[in-house]
Amino acid sequence: MFKTIIVRKPAKSIINGITSNPQLGKPVYEKAVKQHEAYVQALEKCDVTVEKLEADERYPDSCFVEDVAVCTPVFALITNPGTSSRKGEQKEITDVLKKYYDDFVYITEPGTLEGGDVMRARDHYYIGLSERTNREGATQFIAALEKRGMSGSVVEMNEMLHLKTGIAYLGENILLVTGEMIHKKRFVRFEQIVVEPDEAYAANSIRVNDVVLVPEGFEKTKREIEDRGLSTITVDTSEFMKIDGGLSCLSLRF
């Protein structure tokens, strides 16, 4: 069960966020703020305390707090983002997490790792190797996990920005999967909900205690989740989609 969630308000500089989909246009700041407020309201319906951090204009992508830390039940991992424009955000999130953790681990050069490449399923952590997360970063994280009685393994990737672009663990042994994640042998033991290409963005849904947050506009995926007996809330994240962001990216949950 999650007790605490950390979010950061979008900065006006969000219009300069990193994107692999420039054809979607730049995010509209005012709409992004309203969508973020609705996201927080949805989280607050899930029996958690939400800590809301102020916007940081220095970092256009800083509302995507998931990438700069991984919050395990035992320790906080402070990442080393694989994108130069995000380096520096780690210091800010470390100061925040000192209220919640005593044990910290830091990914160091030449390792890189971003939280969007980390998926927890029970006490095991899957770490995607992407343009943002390299094998050295994953190896450092796995060593920290094993030292504390947990485990981790790497997932080779060829197509997706982050691991959680294409996969989400919903509890009860259920995975949402799309694209290259559908055929990964390491995930055959899970019950898979296959997200069709036209709804691929919905693979980045998140379960928060007894509720699954699903991006708005993806009714097939929403129905598939509900058919497994899970409750859902839809949230509009269209402005964040323009800069490669989704539901998981916008919060740290622990």
Description:
The protein is of the alpha/beta class and 254 residues long. It has one domain: L-arginine/glycine Amidinotransferase, Chain A (5-stranded Propeller), CATH 3.75.10.10. It has 5 helices and 15 strands. Strands 2-1-15 form a 3-stranded mixed sheet, with helices on one face. A 3-stranded mixed sheet has the order 3-4-5, with helices on one face. Strand 3 and strand 4 form a beta hairpin. It is globular.
Give a topology summary.
Elements lengths: L3 E5 L20 H16 L4 E5 L15 E3 L4 E3 L10 H9 L6 E3 L11 E4 L2 E6 L5 H13 L3 E6 L10 E3 L4 E4 L13 E4 L11 E3 L2 E5 L3 H9 L3 E5 L2 H4 L10 E2 L1
Strand order of the largest sheet: 2-1-15
- Count of DSSP strands: 15
Low-pLDDT stretches are: none
CATH topology annotation: L-arginine/glycine Amidinotransferase, Chain A
Shape descriptor reads globular
Helix content: 10-25%
- Kindly report the average pLDDT value: 97
Amount of beta strand: 15-25%
Second CATH tier, the architecture? 5-stranded Propeller
N-to-C span: 8 Å
Biggest sheet: strands, sense, closure? 3 strands, mixed
- CATH homology superfamily name: L-arginine/glycine Amidinotransferase, Chain A
- CATH class assignment: Alpha Beta
Helix and strand composition category: alpha/beta
Over all CA atoms, what is the radius of gyration?
17 Å
